[in-house]
Specification:
The chain is of the alpha/beta class. It has 2 domains: 139 residues, Rossmann fold, CATH 3.40.50; 309 residues, no CATH class. It has a 7-stranded mixed beta sheet. The longest helix is centred in the middle third of the chain and has 17 residues. The protein is globular and about 70 Å long. The two termini are 42 Å apart.
Length: 454
């Protein structure tokens, strides 16, 4: 089943005594409505409103008083108000009615026993404007594309899922999980794509859906943009983002255009607000606090690696490879590991960062930095020998700890590595498909002695 992890998170929210109305955020087509419908089945009473429909919209426009509104909702949906403590109220497309978002504060203040979730396909376009959002009276979750564990569940690969969750990994499961991860890398995590593949297992049926998704985002540009000029730049940035994903970018002349730094930056930040892409900024310190350096060039991360692969036309390369690090100069697997690292974090403040040292005498870059219990754990996505991890060696020479992670195509390995300057650190090499299990393995890693020295 899709969304097992976020549904568990919603259950935690539902059971919290300090619960507030929840706004579910995320890009269009990531399954927000589907996940709330599935969660609603766990309640004795489920009320779903869609404010794009005239009848449901009319409830809000004709009932400005929260008490009358609640009574009108329960009456219209033939539910008893006395059962509201065991009712989930879902308000979809909440952005369609002015003032509906602000009404959430009164639900919180006057009906704290009623569980309320709100969402909207274009909600992100108004949250950053001067909209009256009840600060301190709501909480947020962000939905992202389907992760590899959820992909396995969608395909009915229950035994593979169990082995993925087994800590530590059993060696006999490696080749099967690696093969399935290659399929995931090809298909991606957009729910409609995953559902279609799970049903038909036909890769040739997917391009039509990819194109429809990308065209839907392009069609939405008019709603994102402030002016005709802004719309044109956003449209350009959407198209170019798939070819530039996984790379460090410059705003000036982005995608070989004549657009300047200011207009490209504004367009990319607009797309970031609607979760179509992320700008990953580097940090220059190996210790907390993690402070991104916004003066340096960011790396571009798009919503979904499967959509990126389709746009680039490299599916055949993925099908024929034994190591994803050999496809597209390693950009695809690095991008997908990043997607996995952030997929299960539902906070709107969650982000990915990487580390750089940019000196004339020494340039170094570590793919990702993972904060864990007061430490910044470096993560490299590389194949090859440990001696080739030069940037990781430089980071570890400066780090106040001895823990590092490398994702590769080989089985799990824990080793001791010595840098050229003489510092020995512990390197946990994990198969790519374990990226979603990173936090579990860091905790396990800290209890293990090295198994070899290299």
């Amino acid at each position: 089943m899709f969304y097992r992890k976020i549904i568990n998170d919603l259950k935690t929210w539902s059971n919290s005594p300090d619960r507030k109305p929840l706004i579910l955020r995320g890009a269009r087509q990531v399954g927000k409505t589907t996940v709330v419908d599935a969660f609603g089945k766990t309640f004795n009473h489920y009320i779903k409103l869609n404010l794009e429909t005239p009848a449901d919209k009319n409830l809000f426009t004709t009932s400005p008083d929260v008490h009358k509104l609640i009574q009108a909702i329960f009456f219209a949906k033939e539910k008893e108000l006395a059962h509201r403590a065991d009712t989930l109220l879902f308000i979809d497309e909440i952005q369609q009615v002015d003032g509906a978002l602000n009404m959430l504060r009164y639900f919180y203040e006057e009906y704290p026993d009623l569980r309320v979730i709100a969402a909207g396909s274009l909600l992100e376009t108004i949250l950053h404007r001067k909209t009256n959002v009840p600060v301190g009276r709501v909480e947020y979750r962000v939905m992202r594309p389907v992760s590899f564990p959820e992909f396995l569940k969608a395909l009915g690969k229950d035994q593979a899922f169990e082995q993925l969750e087994h800590l530590p990994l059993n060696d006999f499961a490696h080749q099967t999980l690696l093969s399935l991860f290659h399929t995931y890398a090809l298909v991606g995590g957009m729910p409609e794509i995953v559902a279609n593949y799970a049903e038909k297992e036909d890769l040739t049926a997917l391009p039509t859906i990819y194109n429809r998704l990308i065209n839907a985002y392009l069609d939405d540009v008019e709603k994102y943009g402030k002016t005709d000029s802004h719309v044109r730049v956003i449209r350009h940035c959407i198209r170019v983002s798939f070819t530039e994903a996984g790379k460090r970018i410059k705003f000036q002349h982005f995608g070989r255009s004549d657009y300047g730094s200011k207009e490209v930056g504004e367009a990319l930040r607009t797309l970031e607000r609607v979760f179509l892409l992320s700008l990953l900024y580097p940090t220059i310190s190996p210790t907390l606090p993690l402070i991104p350096d916004f003066r340096k060039s960011p790396r571009l991360q798009v919503l979904d690696t499967g959509m990126m692969n389709h746009f680039l036309g490299i599916q055949t390369e993925i099908l024929g490879t034994e190591d994803l690090n050999e496809v597209y100069q390693g950009t695809i697997i690095e991008h997908l590991v990043g997607q996995e690292l952030i997929a299960l974090n539902y906070s709107p403040l969650s982000s990915l960062n990487f580390w750089v040292r940019e000196k004339k005498t020494s340039l170094a870059e570590v793919d990702y930095i993972y904060p864990y219990e007061g430490q910044l754990i470096p993560i490299e996505v590389k194949a090859g020998k440990t001696g080739s991890l030069k940037s990781l060696h430089i980071f570890m020479d400066e780090a106040p700890h001895d823990l590092a992670i490398r994702f590769w195509s080989e089985p799990l390995n824990l080793s001791a590595v010595t840098t050229p300057s003489g510092k020995t650190f512990r390197l946990l090499s994990l198969p790519y498909y374990l990226a979603s299990q990173t936090e579990k393995y860091i905790a396990w890693f800290k209890t293990q002695p090295p198994t070899s020295s290299r």
